[in-house]
Amino acid sequence: MTPHLPADADGATVKAADRAHVFHSWSAQALIDPLAVAGAEGSYFWDYDGRRYLDFSSQLVNTNIGHQHPKVVAAIQEQAGRLCTLAPGFAVDVRSEAARLIAERTPGDLDKVFFTNGGAEAVENAVRMARLHTGRQKVLSAYRSYHGATAAAINLTGDPRRWPSDTGSAGVVHFWGPFLYRSPFHAATETEECERALAHLADTIAFEGPASIAAIILETVPGTAGIMVPPAGYLAGVRELCDRYGIVFILDEVMAGFGRTGRWFAAEHWGVTPDLITFAKGVNSGYVPLGGVAISAAIAETFATRPYPGGLTYSGHPLACAAAVATIRTMEEEDVVGHAARLGRDVIGPALAEIAERHPSVGDVRGLGAFWAVELVRDRETREPLVPYNASGADNAPMAEFAAACKASGLWPFVNMNRVHVVPPCTVTEAEAKEGLALLDEALTVADRHTASA
């Protein structure tokens, strides 16, 4: 693929305007140097000098069908020519079809869809629904989690991005989810980890007061927090606890959904049906902002004659829904979900296992489909992370050097704390995946220099 460059712009001009006027998220504004991107296609994007990068981040793990898929681009263009926008209160063909296609793929009776602009708003509304449905206020969420940056979502989040905005009074209680590699329960097996994590959650519920808890929210497979695949039986155990106490079970599938784990929704791997599912990102590969909540019959019935007190101007925006319809149909036609499953089983998983054997900096690899994490350590025996928790500045130098080595080789990584996540588009070809894994293998020699064995 030869990068095609825009004729009427240059990287320096784009960069100058960005630095003068754009305020970037999660960043110290004077310390960042954003890459000026000229274009993208498939699994790649490129800068104004024509330097191409293999996108092993899927941007923010959302371009599940890759960049600029022609069928989705065409659907957006066609919809723009026919009907650009309409208020949420109207019935619109493309909105109805998007909801129908999503409901067809959700587990159980989650047949109603409330559309939002993205994942954080989906979480906000799911929590609101749960609180109104139960008449309770408290919500439990895991420490190793990310649920969004809006008011309720950031309080539900477990990672350090919560700290500056944590009100301490949002009715959120955090608990430890299962993660055998760094088990807080001193477990030696996945079975022990599952049993002890469920016992811990049961104790948390008992001490917080079951009658005060509206919902438990979990990422089905936590994303930014580390792609920790839950042990067999854990999600079913959470479902049982929720049923026992009348607690709403919310699964956050914003990152894990729509093919990312090799299933339409990750919950399918464990045969679990929650009361609410939040989604976004992969529903239309982020081509136009869209998220939503898939709602069970019981919760939908709560609002049959009682108005739901929530809404958004752009809920179910026609352009976003057209992108979703085209994305879902294209994924079906091209077997993107099956491809992601095979990619994880036959290509990414085996390659990462081999890479782990060669590099002393690799402590653990884990994942499903096109959704993997590589945990980097200073010492395999002690499992000391390559950089401290929430490291920045000089403390984060080893990970910064590793990320720079990836980019210098033409691989764009997704790096968080002491991990690199292998999350290419679900449409990445086997050859492209192997190319990226080879570049990752090479870059890990930089991380190896910071290990105890170096």
Features:
seven-stranded mixed β-sheet, 13 helices, 17% strand, 37% helix, five-stranded antiparallel β-sheet, alpha/beta, 16 strands, 454 residues
Strand and helix map with partners:
Elements: H1 11-21, E1 37-41, E2 44-47, E3 52-55, H2 58-61, H3 70-82, H4 93-105, E4 112-116, H5 119-134, E5 138-142, H6 151-156, E6 172-175, H7 190-208, E7 213-219, H8 234-245, E8 248-252, E9 276-279, E10 291-295, H9 297-302, H10 318-333, H11 336-358, E11 362-368, E12 371-379, E13 384-385, H12 397-408, E14 411-412, E15 414-416, E16 419-422, H13 430-448
Parallel strand pairs: 3-14, 5-6, 5-7, 7-8, 8-9
Antiparallel strand pairs: 1-2, 2-3, 4-10, 9-10, 11-12, 12-13, 12-16, 15-16
Helix pairs in contact: 3-10, 4-10, 7-8, 11-13, 12-13
